[in-house]
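Escalated from tier 1: iron/sulfur cluster holo job.
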Amino acid sequence: PERSVPDAVRTTCPYCGVGCGVTASVDGTGLASVKGDASHPSNFGRLCSKGSALAETLSLDDRVLHPRIDGRTADWDEALDLVAAKFRSTIAEHGPDAVAFYVSGQLLTEDYYVANKLMKGFIGSGNIDTNSRLCMASSVAGHRRAFGADTVPGTYEDLELTDLAVLVGSNLAWCHPVLFQRLLAAKAARPDMKIVVVDPRRTATAEAADLFLPIAPNGDVALFNGLLSHLAREGKADAGFVSAHTSGLDDALAASAADIEITAAGTGLSTADIATFFQLFAATEKVVTVYSQGVNQSVSGTDKVNAMINCHLFTGRIGRPGMGPFSVTGQPNAMGGREVGGLANQLAAHMDFDEIARDRVARFWGTDRLASRPGLKAVDLFEAVGDGRVKAIWIMGTNPVVSMPAANRVRDALARCPFVVVSDVVSGADTAALAHVLLPAAAWGEKDGTVTNSERRISRQRPFLPLPGDARSDWWIMTQVAQRLGFKKAFAYEGPADIFREHAALSAFENDGTRDFDIGAFENVTNTDYEALEPFQWPAPKGGNPPTHDGRFFATGRFYTSDTRARFIPTPVQAKQDYSGLRLNTGRIRDQWHTMTRTGKTPRLASHIAEPFAELHPSDASQLGVTPAGLVQITSAHGAAVARALVTDRQQPGSVFVPMHWTTEYAPAARIDAAVSPAVDPVSGQPGLKLTDVAVTPF
Ligand code: SF4
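Tier 2 regenerated the structure:
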């Protein structure tokens, strides 16, 4: 489709879940420039290093500009015909569960909506999962257990209004820098505000802490169980809130019973530090507990989330300014994907696969093929590709050969898979190399739609560059395949506004206020108003009366469970595992994004940290014969990677940290996820990407 592109637009950054607004301009020679959007209510003009460098990442080097079939250039009709034919024949021969989509928090909500509708609504399988499974699935599961829905209670402003910010498993300074800047600015204005950082590593975020708790890996449940016990001993319950709006406290208290010594044994922290933290939490009314991947990417991630939420429910510190548990998402549209049903275990618009919801969604979509049950979650999905249960997979906007745990197994599974379709922007990604059909997707700057950030704020991503070559929006590519599969009417969208209206209408369909996700106010938005859409927080129901207090859920004490009460969840501490080697932790660095397909294009960002590194404590380095700046190999039962030793006491003895970003393209042996364990949290299915038993040896 032809489209005209204006010279300057307000859009959003494509990187982290802060979701900053940016203004992009293109000069007469076609050169783009990007600056912060001062009118965007999530960043007020601020940008971090990655956002500031966006204009430097827009080159067409390595772009997929035309469809390719088995490496040769093809036209759209041939490629789309082939994808539809292979999916149709696989479904006819083996059933709908023999095909799958693996999608991404890089997709816009409109793309995500079409992918979910096609797979769950019309192909008739639940087999669509997203790389948000690696990011926020434990938060989703924790929210649903406690609140009855995947509801983030707070807003960024709570980090500025609070008197105590507890950052757990979150290197906010590097991973959500603009939110961290907002927190630091608030602390500078009100120096009495306290920041506590709970992390196994002394990160850049920890440098700003009033109290740093260098917790043992996976010690979080023990810490917050100990805190709940302490709050109970000290009589810090909000008894009125607990009795009127919650249930299950006795079981949670019984499961969490621990004194400070037991907490110290479970966390590796000193009793003095624990006592200081507990007293601070108990004595401060306005507390926000911010958490991210150090919590979620764990085999006990969901319990960690609920252990923290338990403490907020017990003290009634939720839904009020400056208070509440707050999950910050990794990706720009991790939350938008959750809204449409991009996770295999959610149907659509925060609805489950129960009979009532299935009937409702089937009537709304006008389908008799709706999936009857949840599909395979990411790790299980690639397992099924490997053992032949899934015979055709379409991967969109993500690079699982680098980012999935046990990544060599994923690579080998895709190499064996009879039919692999990849929609992507760059051809050099490890996953793209395994595609039978590679489809040229639109990139940031060309895409047109919406994203939802960590504070439930929906913002537009607008195009300011023309679509290069044959590149097309993901939603358009999918509708062409859907129509070739015979689903013409259900996928007859003319643009992203059509899809957004339908998404909004579904969120409001037969929603009497008992479902949290509701943007029904936009179900009839005009194309012109969609184009001009200002950032807004959901819920935004028809009639314009959101059941929130200044954007905060639960101020009324009404939750989304059947009896409207929040649930305390018992979170017993799991038995400690034995490790024969070091404990591998993985994560982000400040200036790179995911598998570097964008940020790797600018030398400026590489100047912060140019190479993959393995952060080791001096005592481990000495014991292992590792010299500072020498190469080391990190080996597990699943695979190996090579990085340069960074010897520092910021790291705990017994642990090693390696960043997740480097791909074969940038450093041939540095795919650290090859070594990462595929063990998952049994509730959320999220892999424990932050804890694998590894050997570290000089290379
Ligand atoms: Fe982009 Fe996140 Fe940086 Fe904002 S904080 S500019 S969203 S990477």
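The mean pLDDT is 95.
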